Amino acid sequence: MVRILLAEDDDAMRQYLARALERSGYEVVAVDRGTAALPLIKAERFDLLLTDIVMPEMDGIELAQQAATIAPDMRVMFITGFAAVTLKAGKAMPQAKVLSKPFHLRDLVLEVERMFGQQSASGLN
């Protein structure tokens, strides 16, 4: 089973995304900030880091860069509502996928499926 670490500071968005991904057959561990994600990356194996870019304490780009050092095989997908931040993310982590808010849950699930070559178990697609 694909394991996803979700870092999103907005409580409602975090719960919404986690539920949708879990219903699609993914195992999700969700945290509210990048500084909470780093110890988990050091202690556990995740296939995907799904992170908001604009967060307090540590932004998603810094989190992804540190995560790449700790777990170089983990894939990264950024979510953001800021176009300028999208450009910054693309330059900092060119191999990462960037999904701009607002997006439909189906789009998120399809992007994750593309990354891992899987079919959704939920029918969201």
List keywords for this structure.
125 residues, 20% strand, 5 helices, disordered C terminus
Structure summary:
This protein has 125 residues and is an alpha/beta fold. Helices cover 45% and strands 20% of the residues.
What's the structural blueprint in terms of helices and strands?
Elements: E1 3-7, H1 11-23, E2 27-31, H2 34-43, E3 48-52, H3 60-70, E4 75-80, H4 83-92, E5 97-100, H5 105-116
Parallel strand pairs: 1-2, 1-3, 3-4, 4-5
Helix pairs in contact: 2-3
Q: Could you please describe the fold and organization of this structure?
A:
With 125 residues, this protein is of the alpha/beta class. Helices cover 45% and strands 20% of the residues. Helix 2 packs parallel to helix 3. The chain starts with a strand and ends in a 9-residue tail after the last helix. Mean pLDDT is 88; it is low at 120-125.
Mean pLDDT: 88
Largest sheet: 5 strands, parallel
Name the shape in a single word.
Answer: globular
Structure class: alpha/beta
**SSE string, helices as H and strands as E:** EHEHEHEHEH
- Overall number of strands: 5
β-sheet strand percentage: 15-25%
Q: Which blocks of ≥5 consecutive residues have pLDDT under 50?
A: 120-125
**Spatial strand order of the main sheet:** 2-1-3-4-5
Radius of gyration of CA atoms, rounded to a whole number:
13 Å
Distance from first to last alpha carbon: 18 Å
Q: Please, how many helices?
A: 5
Percent of residues in helices comes to 40-55%
